[in-house]
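[step 3/7] fold_predict: job queued, chain A
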Amino acid sequence: MMNFQSKKSGSVSKDRMIAKFMQLTATGEKTANFCLSVHGWKLDEACDYYFSNPEKYARDHKHQILVDRKKIQHLFDRYRDPSTDVISVDANHDGLLRFFQEIQLDVYSVHALIFSWRLGVAVQGQITREEFSNGLMALGCDSVDKLKTRVSQLDNDIRQPAKFKEFYGYTFNFAKDAGAKNLGIEDALRTWKVVLAGRFPLLDEWCTFVAQHDRRSITRDTWNLLLDFALTINSDLANYDDEGAWPILIDEFVDWLRPRLPATATSTTSSSMS
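[step 4/7] structure written:
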């Protein structure tokens, strides 16, 4: 009798998780069941991974037909610039700003960058028809209401470290001028302050140093390795290896910061190096 009740209780619990997953992701029962079972019926983990890889879980025909490509095309036409057939923002057209306002997406937030990354937007300030159509299909959205819901969940798309690293790498190309090899200092600082907020304990110090440093641009190598530095080096620099293969700019930052650290942090750093 106890075994029967246990099985029944487990079944009810799974049904609730399926219902909750379907509510959070706007997917069908087959997709919910598949995703939850793959992740050991851990709702948070399954949802996180779904939002990072929705296309991998589109196993449910019912879910597939919920997204109408024709509706997406009509939605694009509401905001596009007729002269260029892109959604953009410039002196003569504000379609991109109107689009972001209607889906309740702050253009200056990290969520705007995540959204652009998920759509595969190549040029800052404009979205092509192909990017819009393919991106919204992948996100499972064909209406403003669906996009509002999806926008509120964008943090989940970069929760996994590998996905955040992919997103961070994307922002280098997105922020730099078209055709430029490196990223300008002002654009780099502006992007770092948005993307690394809450992830890099020394972000303020780094931005202060870079702003004062006489550098015209940031290379891709420095951009990428700064993420490794931000995620692995202690705020007291105790585990920083002076002989490591860090970019010169990061080495110079460490030399600049050490004398400015509190005395306790400096002594800890010194003792660890001896």
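[step 5/7] annotate
The two ends are 66 Å apart (CA to CA).
Residues 1-9, 60-65, 266-272 have pLDDT under 50 and may be disordered.
exit 0
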